[in-house]
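Input for the complex:
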Amino acid sequence: MAMHIQLYDTTLRDGSQGEGVNFSVQDKLLITKMLDDLGFDFIEGGFAGSNEKDTEYFSRVQELDLKHAQICAFGMTRRRGVGPEEDAGLQAMLSTGTTCCTVVGKTWDLHVTEVLRVDLEENVAMIRDSVGFLKSQGRRVLYDAEHFFDGYKANPEYALETVLAAQDAGAEIIVCCDTNGGTLPDELAEIVTNVQKSVSIPLGIHCHNDCDVAVANSLRAVDAGAVQVQGTINGIGERCGNADLVSVAANLAIKKGQDVLQGGEGVKHLTELSRYVYELSNMNFRSNQPFVGRSAFAHKGGMHVHAVNRLASSYEHIDPELVGNERRVLVSELSGRSNIVAKTTKFRIDHDQELMKKILDRVVELENEGWQFEASEASFDLLVKKIAGTYEPKFRQIHYRVSVETAGQKEPLTEATVKLQIDGDGPIRHEVAEGDGPVNALDNALRKALIPTYGNLAGMHLVDYKVRVINSSEGTAARVRVVIESADEHDVWSTVGVSENVIEASWLALVDAIEFKLYKDEGEVGAPLEEAAASPE
Amino acid sequence: MAMHIQLYDTTLRDGSQGEGVNFSVQDKLLITKMLDDLGFDFIEGGFAGSNEKDTEYFSRVQELDLKHAQICAFGMTRRRGVGPEEDAGLQAMLSTGTTCCTVVGKTWDLHVTEVLRVDLEENVAMIRDSVGFLKSQGRRVLYDAEHFFDGYKANPEYALETVLAAQDAGAEIIVCCDTNGGTLPDELAEIVTNVQKSVSIPLGIHCHNDCDVAVANSLRAVDAGAVQVQGTINGIGERCGNADLVSVAANLAIKKGQDVLQGGEGVKHLTELSRYVYELSNMNFRSNQPFVGRSAFAHKGGMHVHAVNRLASSYEHIDPELVGNERRVLVSELSGRSNIVAKTTKFRIDHDQELMKKILDRVVELENEGWQFEASEASFDLLVKKIAGTYEPKFRQIHYRVSVETAGQKEPLTEATVKLQIDGDGPIRHEVAEGDGPVNALDNALRKALIPTYGNLAGMHLVDYKVRVINSSEGTAARVRVVIESADEHDVWSTVGVSENVIEASWLALVDAIEFKLYKDEGEVGAPLEEAAASPE
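Predicted:
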């Protein structure tokens, strides 16, 4: 019978320790929403009290209407020689208002005496007091045993003493952490099996990928009896990263027949989830990522393509649709082929074969040029309108010009001019504006030209702006993709532009953002990004 | 006692099936030389007779004076109904002139009947005839059993019959291939153990990473008795790639105490090998790659850094020098003074309290303005020089100007001018250049102005370019951070620029990139990461 294995996501805390990862509060809330939609059991939102961003997150996450996930606040055991009620860290955890607190404590005697520099008994007291205090305040407490495997190998009696202290003080689970990522599967399984004999509450597992076996270790721990796997989306995290929960979830559900992700539909959306997190963290997709990468079911060798055409299973270990991915043969770059119909159902257009094929062909073509629509639904919606023949541009560019000029070390002067024709054969407007940068100047000039006709544009503003080099092998001469997030009082939507020129790419994304706003206010395009991207139907 | 585990590299054949991988003959020869230097046992050079490039490779590789490696020609069993001596594929293998031939044959009955469409007996005859023929021509024959695990699960008797045919015809090893990458470690180990009871020659293992467990599978197979591991450098290969021999070698040698790589010194050069192959295959480094990635021994959290300084093993599973990598301390708001001290030890500057405090204060101040040095070590190094008073600018900006101009839907015209004074009171240069975008145009103009004085800049190029909005609440008027990655023939370094203006931020990062290159070539800034990492003491 399928057993439910809990998935505990720490993308927002341990994942954000990864080099170059930097989520805004808005990013963190969007990821939380999507993880919850997909059925994750626990979401570790941040390190309580460590910075203002996490404090704001914990405050705003309470406004989300979550269906499945428990939000966890992460923190350390109390400092030495301080009562738990006076410990700033524990107070910070309490003040997050989350139902669950995840406390990390030391397991490895060497760490206690050499790094923490407290005596072994005080460390045990710190664990007991911290877990007990949070419990006494009505919180559910999960205990992360740091360096569990190294500690157990060095001094098994002491390692056990620390986790039993957490258990006896009221923790609901002991999570065995391979903090340094140095443990191989056999050793790890043996230790998990042994520890279970002494601990009466369930065990969880938290692996890092320093030996390139974090996923295998997580699966092995589940085989040995662990009921919770901690990890991050796409395996982001410090050093070599954490166990990739995408691979863990897919393996557990599809290969091991276990029940993961509440609601039963989450596994089919793993590809979408993976790409959404890459997009929000401004990281490049790993095209060869297991299960969800663009190349995961791509066939290049002629022999393979031939065989796949004869018999899909001949070179595919699973049906790619099980994880929301798709087979690619030859040039098709499209990730969400099966989603095209689903994504266009909100339009008042005929879903005839021919139109679907036209949309698909165009998307494939654009994706080959570096466009991506996963996180830019507004541009996708406009593209559908264009192909369906229901799109009429609200304005036409005659030309634009941007210049950035500086003298010495002063801030540069930036100026943009735009010349537009409004609404097919309407008036021509020629305007100039300054800005803090070229995109801001262009945006200002565009507004100056358009607001006399479209007053509702005054209620729209840009929220985020991201640039990514697509083919980086040629340095700055490579193609860039710009994604712009816009908002008005009701909605948030994202648009995309691609060009060799960052200004032109920004222009394309800006124009889409404005067109989308105008169509949206006329009720002519569907639900924007936040809604659409986060809903797993 | 340490057992020698053979490493069989197929980067040049199976690896080149990876999406976007395309080696020239010269690349293949260079990689062959390095693999041989490091002590790899077998190098699969290509698919015999499949294309002219591989034919040229097999001809030219004979001129190399190899110390350790056997070059293998890869090919399929004979076609049905043809004698082996008349089979073009087998003849192509022979004509490569290699000592070793690797023959791949079908194990899975479904594949034989549905894909190959021959009867089961004919397939066995094809295997027997092909191996026997090559053997009779004086070649060593390795047998790759394709889809071995899927085949064994479907029909163990038939799977065994195919590999016994290869054994009886004179193959020296049976390599069990998990061609679709769908097998998990437990199942794989069980099958390897079972098969060993029926086969009298040694077994090898060839894994793909579709379940994210290729390295774990390879290690498990060795535990179960396999004596040869096939894989690729950095795990490149079709779909999700092959087992990464870098991780396999490091785990076997360091974690399992086995003897890998002839000559005994190869493991210390794995970081160098990994980066060399990335460079030749024109792929970006994977910074979080286990053992050899740039972030593999990087420490960000202040708590971790503090601990690492007290006791290296506290957050490092191995000494990074064992694989030719190095520890890196990332500077970030999470870290604090212990990071600064650790990071500046490579400079020839006094580590007096006052200077450390000045650096820390400045870093905190800049980080509050949106700078980040954790992924921009070169800018950090220049910052330290500036604060320590050992920095003299190589050139001074008098002004720059960039303009982007378009007419209608055409690609815009981009032009940049720069006016610089060289070296304090040197000549003034005023130059103009075009580019694919504003940053490219600026870069081109800068080079035009500087190369007459600093000829070594010609050997430097931009590798990657990233833009991120820092405070996204104000849209395009917010601050942006640009990170530029540059490289020359020896090193890779990253620089950062922050401004409200993306052009100005790019300018700052460009200037740092150039200054770093100039100081580096004078030996005036510390070894950037890659050099230090790749040079094996």
